[in-house]
TrEMBL record:
The active site is at R87, E90, S113. It catalyses: cyanate + hydrogencarbonate + 3 H(+) = NH4(+) + 2 CO2. It is an enzyme of class 4 (lyase). Residues 74-145 form the Cyanate lyase C-terminal domain. This is Cyanate hydratase. Keywords: Lyase. Catalyzes the reaction of cyanate with bicarbonate to produce ammonia and carbon dioxide. It comes from Pseudonocardia kunmingensis.
Amino acid sequence: MSKSDAAELVVAARRRRGLTWSAIADELGAPPVWTTAALLGQHPLTREQAERACTLLGLEAAVAESLQQQPSRGTDPALMSDPTIYRFTEALSVYGPALKELIHEEFGDGIMSAINFRVDVARRPDPDGDRVVVTFDGKFLDYRW
């Protein structure tokens, strides 16, 4: 079974069972954003995690096998036009050069790792409407010559 087919079954089962991504993450003992990405096919789960997820979601062993496979990471180009995903692209288009300058000023010549990386999503109440807070937390990797 392909990882995309497994992801579709996971999403349908999660909705059918009325589970949140956070509840599934708690069951697996992993962060919610990582767990969601893994169940959507972007990370491999351990055998134990895959079996626990499939038991929780009532899914067959073939799904668990797929969830353990190494992914081909990335997003389908068609999904990039989704308004939520596109806003991240837009924000990085506008603020990416400034973030690069500020990272270099603070840390020197290097990059923020997306491998040794954590990401979190939170809600912050605001009188003008709740705010979405996305935190990228990546290890600094300096360029070495």
